[in-house]
Amino acid sequence: MDYVTPNVFDNSFYHLLLKGDGLLNSDQELYSSMLGRETKKLVVKYAHDPAAFFQQFSYSMVKMGNITNPDSFVNGEIRTDCRFVNA
């Protein structure tokens, strides 16, 4: 989510974080926080290498799509109500 290209799916979100201009404080923490050493590396990588960002995004979407695949999802549950563990 970024205000520079709100209708385009691109890596400008990461460019904004490098400038200290993240839209949400929690977004900016990915780059600016002392605790975010690992995420800071990813912010720099994705800002400078859009192909790496798109590749990781597609991998992550496939992985998330497999959450409900019984062949790959054995430990855990999809909650019917996020506030409670399923009965």
UniProtKB/TrEMBL annotation:
Ca(2+) binds at residues 2, 5, 10. Coiled coil: none annotated. Binds 2 calcium ions per subunit. It catalyses: 2 a phenolic donor + H2O2 = 2 a phenolic radical donor + 2 H2O. Pfam families: peroxidase (PF00141). Keywords: Calcium, Heme, Iron, Metal-binding, Oxidoreductase, Peroxidase. The keyword Oxidoreductase applies. InterPro entries: Haem_peroxidase (IPR002016), Haem_peroxidase_sf (IPR010255), Peroxidase_pln (IPR000823). It is an enzyme of class 1 (oxidoreductase). Its EC number is 1.11.1.7. Its cofactor is heme b; Ca(2+). Residues 1-86 form the Plant heme peroxidase family profile domain. One of its GO terms (molecular function) is lactoperoxidase activity. Belongs to the peroxidase family. This is peroxidase. It comes from Salix udensis.
